[in-house]
Write a structure and sequence with these properties.
This is IS30 family transposase. By secondary structure, the chain is mainly α. The protein is built from three helices and no strands.
């Protein structure tokens, strides 16, 4: 089911989640972590 999404240039939910986790880990000093999750 991931193939059509990838062909359209979209990331799978797992890929997006992994990137969000990486962002939070690289910005642990960020005073507003909730913003990173919703942006």
């Amino acid at each position: 089911n991931d193939t059509p999404m990838k062909l359209l240039g979209y990331k799978t939910p797992n890929e997006v989640w992994d990137e969000e986790i990486a962002k939070l880990q690289s910005k642990q000093a960020d005073p507003k972590p909730a913003v990173a999750l919703t942006s």
